[in-house]
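FORM 7B: Structural annotation worksheet

SECTION A. Query
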Amino acid sequence: MEAERTFWEYLRDFSENQAPLDFVLVYDNLDKFFEGALVTLQLTFLALLIGGLMAIPMALARANKVSVLNPIIWCYTYAFRGTPLLVQTYLFYFGLGQFEAVRESFLWSPILSDPWWCVLIAFTLNTAAYTTEFLRGAIETTPRGEIEASVAAGMSPWLRTRLVVLPSAFRRALPAYSNEVIFTLHGSVIASTVTLQDLLGVGRWLNGRYYLAYEGFVTAMLFYMAIVLMITVAFKLAEKRYLKHLRPRESTEETAASATV
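SECTION B. Predicted structure
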């Protein structure tokens, strides 16, 4: 026990005084980084889920040029894609409270006065705007042969949309959506600016409490890199499965030659 204690004390002394990064201090506070990662993942994936569900009907309305909805949805997507996410978050968190009607509404106490809900609403509306536009593009570029085949099979417009157009658009939108997932994850650092203890917020707390320069930021960076790696691998596997039919096939001669070799 004495040897173990001496080694631990030596390791702590080396970490504090000689190592470029105080890894022992980071290890002591690792639980807080996992709690921050949980907040980050909750905000990111809830926003993606709700925003994705919102984007499907809006993308269909945009792709089908619905007379009344199309200009309204265009204005919404333009507003949220044309302004920074930080500004949108501030408007929800700081701006709504300036209106007495909002403060006296039934939504103020349980939702709009809570920074977590304000951030979630801002993230959801932002990612819904981006998802609407690239999903609209995927719907509009659905191969004409698939549409003609579904018409020939006697499918109604709704059945054709549900069984042919949307599944085809979802598959082809996978690469673009993987970028949106990562961008939303990166954008979640804004949550720390409105008092939420997400990953970056924990990093700032660690640096501020112990007067450090970069230990908290480096640890948060490593967590983000690990999460992005998992997201990238998941989407690569999904693309490999659902976009297999779009990959170029080997010609008969190349297949025979490779089999002969």
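SECTION C. Observations
The CA atoms of residues 70 and 227 lie 36 Å apart. The chain has one domain: 24-141+148-243.

SECTION D. Sign-off
Analyst initials: ____
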